[in-house]
Amino acid sequence: MTSMAGPGPLARRQMLRRAFANRELVIGGTIVLLFVLVACLAPLLAPYDPLQANFLTIRKAPSWSHPLGTDEVGRDVLSRVIYGARTSLLAGVVSVSIAVAIGVLFGLAAGYVGGIFDLLAMRLIDAMLAIPSLVLAIALAAFLGPNLTNAMIAIGITATPAFVRVTRAQVMAVKIETYVEGAISVGDTHLQLLTRHILPNAINPIIVQATLAISTAIIAEASLSFLGLGQQPPAPSWGSMLNAARGFLSQAPWMAIWPGAAIFIVVISFNLLGDGLRDLLDPRETFSERS
Amino acid sequence: MLKFLFGRLAIMVPTLLLVTVIVFLLQNLLPGDPVIAMAGENRDPAVIAHLRAKYHLDEPLPVQYGIWLGGVLQGDFGQSLHIERPVLELALEKLPVTLQLAGMAMVIALVIGITAGTLAAVKHNTWIDYAVRIAGLCGLSTPNFWLGILLILLFSVELGWLPASGYVSPTEDLWANLKAMIMPAFVLGNAVAAILMRHTRSAVLQEMREDYVRTAIAKGLPRRKVIVRHVLYNALVPIITLAALEFGLLLSGAILTEQVFTIPGFGKLIVDAVFNRDYAVVQGVVLCTATIYMVLNLAADLAYFMVNPRMRR
By Cβ atoms counted within 10 A, which residue in A18, A48, A247, B88 is the most buried? Predict the structure, then answer.
């Protein structure tokens, strides 16, 4: 680990080579990138308006005109799956950003300040962790009101404790390093210590945690939307599409298959990406996990 | 042992108190004034004042918390506004259904997770190992409500072997109960099986590198015996405690599984309560789930303490 100065060009090249040699990272990263492109280019890629009902095409099986079939009000499933990628990726990124912003701040403070603040913060985190995350997210979404924004806030809050713990553990390990002591001896302020030396050297496990948390957040958003507590119909969301499909399983199974497959593929991609990043950025963790 | 138990309780009690604070504060996230909603269209000031006094809403927040906590400690979790029954009574009625579902899911997860994990470790770097690892990744990435829908499509709609939804009490008809619960239990246990499989694989691999294993094999003990008698015994200690911790995940996952299979358990109770704006039930279920989860954590710690001699030193 180095303080202040980032890795040199040689180290950067080596890391890039290792990244491209890592199959999980490449496969996961490519699929995630594809989903991001699909979400960004949704208006260009979707063959139909995802909200446009058509009572002449209700529950039509997959065909050339509707490759993934149509739903209970005749909307094109492919177009809704494409637009659904926006909701899922947005929910994943926004809720994890909320969790990172709060979690890293609290984790930095708890690990750096220590003492009674650390003790109280960790008890609060223990209390939050004692409530299963989906139960807490449902309760929060219920009390805040059912919509996508509140669902993202609820998921972000429930994902926060993991980031507090990871950051705190990293800060406690880094703050006793010699280069931090050196920085203290040359008169660096607390803010300089935290932003220039401690956080940059503690960031890798946080990045890995964030990537893995996005997949959990996407499932959480789909779960809340499935329960009717996230994205509200008719706006497209993979979770709410699955909820609507439950009523027509025998007549229109395609309504259930494709949104679920989309969730599965995007989640597995983020999991692969997270595992790959862990190999790249945090090899010690990998050794014990993979052997 | 007692010292360890009291040490853990000393941490658990304040944590549980903090959980009650979080659950109590949830109510204050509610937009608007609940009393105005209760007072009806006329909104008579006298009625509003009476309701405020009745529900202690005219008191400061810490006093309201104290009154609420006092009730909770005496088993009074409030009254369901929708069903008009005490929350505790409802929770106790639904809990056995969810516990059966979670229990069956855990058995399935343990059987699949430990068997597949051990097999992957023993056949390290072969196609079996790769297949198990891919299956584990898929298990972790499959939303259980989607898996439930796919299994309903296959086993109920296509093959007609199992009921798509509903619940029969085991005391009424055990066979019908098992038929109704096996699919939801598999769906619920799927993710935990994947987690247990990953941990079993890495724990068995780690144990297999230990000196005592090499010695046992060098002494001529059959490999199968070494794995079953020595390696698995040592590797499974942390796995069993992990399984106890994952029980909390099952309670959480049960919400979606119960919704997909229309099982009248704890999960369905909280979802119905959310849509009926029955906030006392939501609070009660969250508090009960957290308490069960913490007790399971304590039980896992105690189990680990008892089976691991190094902890007792």
Answer: A48
pLDDT of the residue at B78: 82
Burial letters B2-35, b for 16+ CB under 10 A, else e: eeeeeebeebbeebbebbbebbbebeeeeeeebb
Any CB–CB contact under 8 A between B42 and chain A? no
pTM, entire model: 0.88
Identify whether the C-beta of residue B68 lies closer than 8 Å to the C-beta of residue B19. no
pLDDT value at A291 more than 60: no
Note whether B286 contacts A260, CB cutoff 8 Å: no
Check A268 against B137: CB less than 8 A apart: yes
Whole-number Å distance between alpha carbons of B142 and B188:
11
CA dist B142 and B164 (Å) reads: 19
Using CB atoms and an 8 Å cut-off, which of residues 192-221 of chain B contact chain A? 198, 201-202, 205-206
**Angstrom distance (rounded) from CA A224 to CA B190:** 20
Which residue in chain A has the smallest CA separation from B18? A127
For chain A, say whether B138 makes contact (Cβ under 8 Å): yes
Residue B305 C-alpha, separation from nearest chain A C-alpha, in angstroms = 20
Indicate if the alpha-carbon torsion angle B303, B304, B310, B311 is positive or negative: negative
Q: Which two tokens stand for residue B302?
A: 């105690």
**Angstroms from B287 CA to nearest CA on chain A:** 8
Give pairs for B301-309: CB < 8 Å, separation 24+: B301/B4, B301/B8, B301/B241, B302/B4, B302/B5, B302/B8, B303/B240, B303/B241, B303/B244, B304/B237, B304/B238, B304/B241, B305/B1, B305/B4, B306/B1, B307/B237, B307/B240, B308/B237
Would you state the structure tokens that stand for residue B307, as one six-digit string?
A: 């089976």
Show the beta-strand stretches assigned E in chain A: none
Nearest Cα residue in chain B from A266:
B141
Q: Do B252 and A133 touch (CB under 8 A)?
A: yes
Cβ within 8 Å, pair A127-B255: no
- Cα B181 to Cα B107: distance, rounded to the nearest angstrom: 13
Under DSSP, the state recorded for A246 is G
Q: Which backbone phi and psi does B87 adopt, to 5 degrees?
A: -60, -40
Please judge whether B150 and A143 are an interchain contact, meaning their C-beta atoms are less than 8 angstroms apart: no
Q: Dig out the tokens for B281 from the structure.
A: 């039930």
ipTM of the complex model: 0.86
Record: contact B22-A242, CB cut-off 8 A: no
> Using CA atoms, how far apart are residues B247 and A238, in angstroms rounded to an integer?
27
* Count of positions (residues) in chain A: 291
* pLDDT value at A4 more than 60: no
A173-205 burial: b if 16+ Cβ within 10 Å, else e: ebbeeeebeebeeeebeeeebbebbbbbbbebb
- In chain A, residues with a C-beta closer than 8 Å to the C-beta of B141 are 215, 264, 267-268, 271
Are A144 and B29 in contact by the 8 Å Cβ rule? The answer is yes
Q: Say if residues A48 and A82 touch (Cβ distance below 8 Å).
A: no
> Taking the CB of residue A286, how many other CB atoms lie within 10 A of it?
16
Please report the residues numbered 62 through 101 in chain B whose beta carbons come closer than 8 angstroms to any beta carbon of chain A: none
pLDDT at residue A212 tops 50: yes
Question: Higher model confidence: residue B157 or residue A4?
Answer: B157
Q: Which candidate, A11, A3, A8, places its Cα nearest to that of A177?
A: A3
State the count of interchain CB pairs (< 8 A) between A and B: 142
* Average pLDDT of the segment spanning A114-131: 88
